[in-house]
């Protein structure tokens, strides 16, 4: 046990600051904030505040939001459902001419609904914003018309 203490004492002596030249600590050189814990900042820059998460959107809220953003898509879906129901009813009543007409109208309303959906998706995906500071084509044409009016 004595040998163990002497080994520990030797290690402590080797790591002491007395053996290292110019290893004195000046109180003026110590940063007083160095040991202070850092407080994480939230996305808004508030210190110490936990980020606020929004609650999940309910089905009714999402349905209302979608109806408001793209009102023609649900109208097209309802039209398709009407033609489908009417065509099935005509088929059940053994009226092949009306059933065939309703099924053709159903296909047409489905196509129109899909085209409306694609149109909304394209309208949301593409913008006419060009490079910042660059004039848009409508601005350029407006300038041309003004020049022509000034020439006359």
Automatic annotation (TrEMBL):
One GO process term, biological-process aspect: mitochondrial respirasome assembly
Domain HIG1: residue ranges: 44-135
Keywords: Membrane, Mitochondrion, Transmembrane, Transmembrane helix
Record-given protein name: HIG1 domain-containing protein
Pfam families: HIG_1_N
GO cellular component: mitochondrial membrane
Membrane-traversing stretches: 72-92, 112-131
The organism of origin for this protein: Stephanocyclus meneghinianus (Diatom)
Primary subcellular site in the record, as a coarse category: mitochondrion
UniProt keyword Transmembrane present: yes
Sequence segments annotated as region (Disordered): 1-55
Polar residues bias: start-end ranges: 23-32
Places the protein is found: Mitochondrion membrane
């Amino acid at each position: 046990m004595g040998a163990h203490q002497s080994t520990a004492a030797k290690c402590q002596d080797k790591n002491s600051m007395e053996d290292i030249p110019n290893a004195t600590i000046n109180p003026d050189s110590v940063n007083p904030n160095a040991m202070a814990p850092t407080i994480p900042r939230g996305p808004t820059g508030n210190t110490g505040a936990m980020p606020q998460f929004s609650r999940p959107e309910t089905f009714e809220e999402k349905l209302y939001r979608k109806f408001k953003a793209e009102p023609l898509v649900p109208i097209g879906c309802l039209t398709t459902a009407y033609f489908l129901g009417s065509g099935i009813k005509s088929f059940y009543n053994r009226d092949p001419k009306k059933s065939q007409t309703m099924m053709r109208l159903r296909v047409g309303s489905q196509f129109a609904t899909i085209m409306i959906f694609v149109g909304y998706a394209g309208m949301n995906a593409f913008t006419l914003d060009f490079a910042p500071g660059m004039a848009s084509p409508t601005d350029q044409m407006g300038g041309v018309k003004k020049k022509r009016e000034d020439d006359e």
